[in-house]
Design goal:
This protein is an alpha/beta fold and 243 residues long. The chain folds into 2 domains: 3-130, Aspartate Aminotransferase, domain 2; 142-242, Alpha-Beta Complex (Aspartate Aminotransferase, domain 1), CATH 3.90.1150.10. It contains 7 helices and 8 strands, in the order αβαβββαααββαββα. It has a 4-stranded mixed β-sheet with strand order 1-2-3-4, with helices on one face. A 4-stranded antiparallel β-sheet has the order 5-6-8-7, with helices on one face. A hairpin with a 6-residue loop joins β5 and β6. The two termini are 32 Å apart. The mean pLDDT is 94. Bound molecules: pyridoxal-5'-phosphate. Pyridoxal-5'-phosphate (PLP) binds next to loops.
Length: 243
């Protein structure tokens, strides 16, 4: 993210949407110096930062990363999270931690935009959290996902070795696999052949404004068990060798 460009006169950005603890999709962690620069830009230009901490419950390596919001003393950060990763996506529940001055405007906009978030589901979830079940569930999920991640990294190393570079594996439920021997134009063919072999992968270059130097794939593993991961990566390896 080019923070200097946002701050240039005439750029006029009023809001920055960022995923600083695990950039989507690359998994990069925004360093402290850039977090501070972003906050300084927001303060100077009266802009807001939306900090989407979409998968922070699942951090496998290193210490937990402090939120940008916790560095903010000017009420410029809107922190949002989701239960889609930690529970399940069809729950359709997330949350926002707002600067106090934005609580009323958010309630009003929420009322106009969507006044039907299920009361029953919210009540059940709040009791699930209050009674300690969510904490316990997260601990179990962390252990389970850590094993799945280890199986994925091990299978990728075995199948692809030095022909691939894996990024962003220290957190979340997906990894990025860069393929330095292939071009971004090769991605659709690889994705299609992988799909025919029963493996769903996502092309990486569509997340870029400018074409990246190499082909890349996004691999999600949150819903797969270890044997499925092993089988999927073997099939993907065969597709990539053929490419
Ligand atoms: C970057 C990012 N933010 C947020 C979410 C969650 O969105 P939602 O809460 O609408 O399911 C996802 C996907 O699950 C995501 O990839």
């Amino acid at each position: 993210m080019d923070i200097a460009r946002a701050g240039r006169r005439g750029a006029g950005a009023r809001l920055a949407y960022v995923t600083p603890s695990h950039q989507f999709p690359t998994g990069a962690v925004m360093p402290l110096s850039r977090r501070l620069a972003l906050l300084e830009w927001a303060r100077r230009s009266g802009a807001y930062i939306v900090e989407d901490d979409y998968d922070s419950e699942f951090r496998f390596d290193g210490r937990p990363i402090e939120a940008v919001q916790s560095l903010d003393h000017q009420d410029r950060v809107i922190y949002v999270g989701t239960f889609s990763k930690s529970l399940f996506p069809s729950l359709r529940l997330g949350y926002a931690v707002l600067p106090p001055s934005l609580v009323d405007p958010f309630l009003r906009v929420k009322y106009l935009a969507d006044r039907h978030t299920s009361t029953l589901v919210q009540l059940v979830l709040s009791q699930f959290i209050a009674q300690g079940h969510f904490e316990r569930h997260l601990r179990q999920m962390r252990k389970r996902n850590e094993k799945r991640r280890a199986a994925l990294l091990c299978a990728l190393e075995r199948e692809l070795g030095a022909t691939a570079r894996v990024d962003g594996a220290n957190a979340g439920l997906h990894v990025v696999v860069w393929l330095p021997h292939l071009r971004p134009a090769d991605e659709p063919r690889i994705v299609e052949r992988a799909a025919r072999a029963g493996v769903g992968v996502y092309p990486l270059s569509r997340y870029y404004a400018a074409t990246p130097a190499h082909a890349g794939l996004l691999l999600g593993y949150g819903s797969l068990d270890e044997p499925q991961i092993e089988a999927g990566v073997s099939a993907l390896g065969a597709v990539l060798r053929a490419a």
